[in-house]
Amino acid sequence: MKTVEMSVIAGDTAPKVMNPLRFAVFFDELVLQEWQARCLRALLERGRARLELVIVGQPAMEGAGSMPRPGRTLFPVFRRLFVHPTATRPVDPADLFATVPVVSLGSDADRPSGLRQPVAGEDPWKILEQDLDFILHFGSFPVPEVFLEAARYGVWEFHQGDDERYHAGPPGFWEIHDGEPVTGAVLRRRTGRPDERVVLKKGFFPTVDYSWAANMDRALLESASWPAEVCDDIRQDCISDVLAPPMRTTAPVRDLPNNRQTLRFVQKVSGNIAIRAGNRLFRRTEWNIGIVHQPVDRFLQQSGTGLKVDWLPALSDHGFVADPFGIEKDGRIHLFFEEYDRRLGKGVISHVELDGGAVVSPIRRVLDLPVHLSYPYVFEHDGRVYCLPETSEAREIALYQAVNFPHEWRKAAVLVDGIAAADATVFEFGGRWWLFCTDVDAGENLRLFIWHAPALFGPWRPHAANPVKTDIRSSRPAGRPFTRDGVLFRPAQDCSRTYGGGIKLNRVTRLTPGEFAEEAVTVIQPDPTGDYPDGIHTLSEAGGLTFVDGKRLVFRGMPRKQWVRRLTTAVRFIRRPRRPTAHQVGSVSLRPRGNPS
């Protein structure tokens, strides 16, 4: 949980800001990689921190560890020949370190030429007398214990992988080998024990199971900004996470892969590439809307194994419907949703009227803009009906008001400008208005951002701890938050295995302008034997009914002239992470809190 002390400015809240933090960076030997350079640039931007010192430890002896152990000869060959991530590409350190003193704990010959001599005299250990706020450790070997108390906020280092499951091992490898849907990363403060750490930042990214290099790139490059974000927290007096007591980890140590594991890995990646190309060539996604004749809090119950879903009739081959939101007016439920037309490549907001769960009106388009529209978050406030649709292509979060409900709408206000927000969700709780969304530019399914305001029309301020969460399993909003017994519950998309693969219902335990924390309560998954077995990503309630949407992958036919184009596209597509674009009976499944991940 993040905590930021707030000061009062013009009747609202804004965080206090301190001077730039002073830090040193520690290497085994001065070889700077691309992701490390990005990390340092983020720290130096906007006066967050000032680099005072570069420390070069004792490098490994030449030839040490170069001979692989028996039974483990394939892995280093495979890695050297076939794995070349952008993140680990060496870059010239001169631009960042040209004016920074470099202290070598080994021989003076270890210091690269052209870099400045240390200001601490001939004794390199005088660096302990520098007034440092933190030391950023990029080395592979443990930092000398004497440095653990040399900076005000300790020694920070990255751990590639979920430190509750993987301890050591090649970054991003075992997650693909083991079929894990997510790859973790941790920024932690070192303690004197190898099995203890203080977690400063932790995130989970979708595993790129068809490319080890791409999986490393995603985890390393996406987490490179974390030290800068922790500096922002500290400069706003948020030090509870940094100074928290250490926690122990019991994760097993994963060694370098043996020959059998390396061969299995290659086989697995090859199969994943084939599956990915096949899906791209032969399958397409269809969504549809379903109605559950139960209130939404029924999904909180952990004893049930399924709920009946009545699916609307599917649309034609040219499109689909998704993102249902309802509102009750005059005894009937008005259902708004995205209607996507593949021929146009964009969505519009459409509407039907329900009576007792039955559709009693034709589908009618009610909001059509030059940009793609989806996620029509409709609600009532002060006797007026509003809709907050997703308009990420317009780079604004715009509020629309019904002037002739339900068919005519006008833009009432732009709540937040300059952001490509995905699935913006607005609600009132605890005497304030809150707006949750993800940012397409920052990973549309990955990072959760919050804004808050004293009233619906603002002024809207960003949360002091933005982004408050980095987790592909539970960041992107998935429908309308709701309260039960004063407790706030937030539906969030689980996109770890596929876009819109499931929903996590999270209990929000802390929500203030400077704090946010939530915990998973229930996982909602599609019925694998139902008509829409491949995903669910919206949950909302109106009039005692709960509305969901379901995804299925279907085989598609195509004219012969499209085969060459699709085959060429598929070959290119498998080399980069996929970016998603948004009367039968089935069910949805509930899984208890026991293992929500």
UniProtKB/TrEMBL annotation:
Residues 319-523 form the Glucosamine inositolphosphorylceramide transferase 1 N-terminal domain. GO terms for molecular function: glycosyltransferase activity. Gene3D superfamilies: Glycosyl hydrolase domain, family 43 (2.115.10.20). Pfam families: GINT1_N. Residues 578-597 are annotated as: Disordered. InterPro entries: Exostosin, GINT1_N, Glyco_hydro_beta-prop_sf. It comes from the Bacteria. PANTHER family: ACETYLGLUCOSAMINYLTRANSFERASE. This is Glucosamine inositolphosphorylceramide transferase 1 N-terminal domain-containing protein. It comes from Nitrolancea hollandica Lb. The lineage of its organism: Bacteria, Pseudomonadati, Thermomicrobiota, Thermomicrobia, Sphaerobacterales.
